[in-house]
Here is the input.
Amino acid sequence: MSMVSEIVADGPRGPGSEARIRGRREVVGRQRILFVCTANVDRSRTAEDLYRADPRYEVLSAGTSAHAQTPVTREMLLWADRVFVMSEREDRHRTLLRLRFPEVECPVVDLDVEDRWRRGDPELVRRLLKSLVPHLGTPQPRRDQ
Here is the structure.
């Protein structure tokens, strides 16, 4: 079973939840994107919401804290083609990933988005898009088949 088939998109979230890591199908040509913040409640979940329907990407989100909704795992980092952390300056997300998973080498981009807004807040969405569009383009809606 490939690493891609180990990831689940819509499983339950919560402590101890490896729920999102089992049973996802590989979709050829789609980049796998992981968004990481501290608690996986507001910033990374908003970023995931923005790109979830985009046919170019498979997206997941996770948090660096032990109490995160979905704590980041080694398997998630290995699955991801690219990782976007919310704030190295404020939260040391990149540093925490490197310290916790030194054996995993993956491209990590720091978005420098502070933890100031609730999930889906228009200002958070604006800041995320400003940082993400140069890397991922404008989120695209999924086309009906």
